[in-house]
Amino acid sequence: MRARLSYTVSALALVFYFVLVGDRGVLLIADGRPVTVAFGLAVLVLPLIGAWFLWQTTQFARNAGRLGRELEAEGGLPVDDLARTPSGRIDRDAADAVFARRQAETEAAPDDWRTWFRLAVAYFDARDTPRARKAMQRAIALHDGKPPR
User: Fold this and answer.
1) Coil/strand/helix, residue 90
2) What is the pLDDT of residues 110-140, one digit of tens each?
3) pTM of this prediction?
4) Which positions ≥6 away from 34 have C-beta within 8 Å?
5) For the chain, first and last CA: distance in Å?
6) If you count DSSP H runs as helices and E runs as strands, how many of each does the chain have, helices first?
7) C-beta separation of 139 from 120 below 8 A
8) Which pLDDT score, from 0 to 100, does residue 97 have?
9) What Å distances lie between residue 111 and 4, 51, 121, CA to CA?
10) Are the CB atoms for 43 and 24 separated by under 8 Å?
11) Rg (Cα) of the chain, in Å, rounded?
């Protein structure tokens, strides 16, 4: 719940920023001079890119959550029983051991979205966020019957 609240607050702050920047871009275009029009158009591109990125990130989070709820209902969510350091971080050796097991499961069943979901969690626990995201994208694509990216 805390993560959802943080994400919502951050997204709202970004939307507010996009509106402010967009307004400045429109004001620059309205000035009418060629230099300010060109600068205003360039400024308008930034909120468009930011809004697209925010939309993609939100869709990814919603889809991952949907898969997580479905896997939980099936009783297939990975159990978080990893050893932790005194600071609360997951122990790297414990995460690596689970990762090896999850990778073998995924190699044995490469078309099962559930194994890719669990592999994504293992990547995340091993602090490899880019690969965790790619594995989760593959799980989402397999679940939804779309070709994996």
Assistant:
1) strand
2) 999 999 999 999 999 888 999 999 999 999 9
3) 0.80
4) none
5) 30
6) 5, 0
7) yes
8) 85
9) 30, 32, 17
10) yes
11) 21
